[in-house]
Write a structure and sequence with these properties.
mainly alpha, single chain, Ribose 5-phosphate Isomerase B, Chain: A
Length: 128
């Protein structure tokens, strides 16, 4: 497991179904709430495109989920927007690229500075 290899503690929130219908907002909510509460520093969500997961996760206050399709966007999502959930599209990125994206996301750090002011503005939007 990549996360274990990189020294990260993690929990798999599902899904474990082979044939049962899966509604991605249910899983996005579980992970987003765990991140927003501080139980976990960050999360990773996967659906067909990553877009639905990011839309659902971003409904939880304190979550900044980013759908990323390459290492550059994953790294920047952390550096500039302090993203705390990575959303991947299994129909878009292959296994090797997904590994690279996850590594880029987890190894990057928020740069602060002018970006911190922008995060304050995003947080203000959440309160509206």
């Amino acid at each position: 497991n990549l996360l274990t290899d990189l020294g990260h503690t993690h929990r798999d929130f599902g899904c474990y179904y082979d044939t049962t219908r899966v509604d991605y907002p249910d899983f996005a909510q579980k992970v987003a709430e765990a991140v927003a509460s501080g139980e976990f520093d960050c999360g990773i969500l996967v659906c067909g495109t990553g877009i639905g997961m990011s839309m659902a996760a971003n409904k939880i206050k304190g979550v900044r989920a980013a759908a990323c399709y390459d290492s550059f966007s994953a790294r920047r999502s952390r550096q500039h927007t302090d993203a705390n959930i990575l959303c991947l599209g299994q129909d878009i990125v292959g296994k090797d690229l997904a590994r690279d994206i996850v590594q880029a996301f987890l190894s990057a750090e928020f740069e602060g500075g002018r970006h911190a002011e922008r995060i304050k503005k995003i947080k203000a939007l959440e309160s509206r």
